[in-house]
Design a protein that fits this description.
By secondary structure, this protein is mostly helical. It has ten helices and no strands.
């Protein structure tokens, strides 16, 4: 197990102190694990497997694949591991709630707009107008569900209140 723990740490390009902080133990404890002087507790093994998506059978016995391929990461786990704020998570959740055809349009637009090879093709006014149009299309696509459920499709302001600067 000592070599497998070291492999995990090295693959993640972490020092023993960084690795220890990630799983809740001190750096010198990691040194003990990697030299074989100490054996990690079940709780530490669980932490390693959880934090690095490692197969417990592989870590304990060297059996099977190192990485849990079928393991799905939750947004909260992902956010925590990437130091994301609540606003970061909300942005991702909003993005994921957009229908896939509109997401594809948004992705294409962002790629074109921020392309390093060319300058943006549109003005701020045109960008705002395109975003308003996309929002309106999204709202229209949800009208049927609004009629059925009675819940609003959007919290956006009325078209008459919108101004494009």
């Amino acid at each position: 197990m000592k070599d497998r723990i070291k492999t995990i740490r090295k693959n993640n390009k972490m020092t023993q102190v960084e690795f220890g902080n990630k799983i809740g133990v001190k750096g010198n404890t990691i040194t003990g694990y990697e030299t074989g002087l100490r054996t990690p507790s079940d709780a530490v093994i669980f932490s390693i497997c959880r934090e690095f998506n490692i197969s417990e059978d592989w870590l304990r016995y060297g059996k099977g694949e190192m990485i849990n391929e079928n393991e799905q990461i939750s947004l909260d786990d992902f956010a925590k591991s990437h130091n994301m704020t609540d606003i970061d998570k909300e942005i991702i959740m909003c993005y994921l709630s957009i229908p896939s055809n509109l997401r594809n349009s948004l992705i294409s637009y962002v790629k074109d707009y921020f392309s390093i090879e060319q300058k943006p093709k549109t003005s701020t006014d045109e960008i705002a107008a395109e975003l308003i149009s996309a929002e309106e299309e999204y709202i229209k696509s949800n009208l049927n569900s609004v009629r059925k459920t009675g819940y609003p499709a959007s919290n956006s302001i009325n078209d008459t209140e919108r101004k494009v600067n």
